[in-house]
Specification:
Length: 247
């Protein structure tokens, strides 16, 4: 099967769900965290319980944030993101489920209400006590000015980038919405994900069990390749627009 087959399936489908991982954003210059040369190969990963219980770990966490935030803020969507916008404008894309945290899908033109952020967002910082939020620009400016582990100015609680850290509970409502989207789609397109991080990696399987076709587009092999109806190992910014018909 080929990209022409994928184009045919996309033309037929009226309920498409997209699913994206780090691979779609690395083509926009966002560094990968988990790969051999990723961020966590150079800096220590801070688990959620460490952040909550230890001031030194909070300082290290915010130090890492200060380094990574400018790249995240300045990154621009690429052709892969634009392909999903094309599907949305054609009335086919019902939901975009993402493991990514930099909101490039919204920046590309997808409305926030159809983007389900499984791992939260790095564009804001949230108070772990009252839930209040401020922009990452404001939070990082406070770190630079000497607040090495800033606290909420409303209640004094711990401020943390609004991402889901290892050991932190996933947002149940977002996961439920993502599962419902997977159950109700005709075509599930998984892009740029290693499909190993649970529970997110279960979503393509849910879609298949519910009768949808599954397309995987990723540079490397994934554990779900044998389950997929079509697997494309290629650059996302080239392959996905060709599948969608954007080029």
């Amino acid at each position: 099967m080929s990209l022409e087959t994928a184009r045919g399936w996309i033309d037929e489908a009226q309920r498409i769900v997209g699913f994206t991982g780090a691979g779609i954003s690395t083509e926009s210059g966002i560094p990968d965290f988990r790969s051999r040369n990723g961020v966590w190969s150079r800096r220590r990963m801070i688990y959620f319980d460490e952040f909550v219980s230890n001031e030194a770990d909070r300082i290290e966490y915010w130090s890492q944030k200060l380094v990574s935030w400018p790249e995240m803020r300045e990154a621009e969507p690429n052709a892969g993101h634009d392909a999903f916008v094309d599907l949305y404008r054609r009335g086919k894309l019902q939901a975009l489920i993402t493991q990514n945290i930099e909101r490039l899908h919204q920046k590309s033109g997808l409305p926030n209400e159809i983007v389900f952020e499984l791992h939260g967002t790095t564009t804001e910082a949230a108070c772990l006590t009252c839930g209040g939020r401020i922009s990452s620009d404001e939070a990082c400016a406070r770190v630079e000015s000497g607040e090495l582990a800033p606290r909420c100015r409303l209640c004094g609680g711990l401020l943390k980038p609004a991402t889901i850290s290892f050991g932190q509970s996933m947002p149940l409502d977002v996961m439920q919405q993502a599962q419902q989207a997977a159950e109700n789609c005709e075509l599930f397109i998984a892009v740029g994900s290693s499909l190993v991080v649970q529970p997110a990696a279960s979503l393509p399987e849910i879609a298949k069990r519910s009768g949808a076709r599954l397309i995987i587009v990723n540079r490397d092999e994934t554990p779900l390749d044998d389950l997929a109806d079509l697997v494309v190992h290629d650059e996302i910014g080239k392959a996905l627009p060709a599948m969608v018909g954007s080029v």
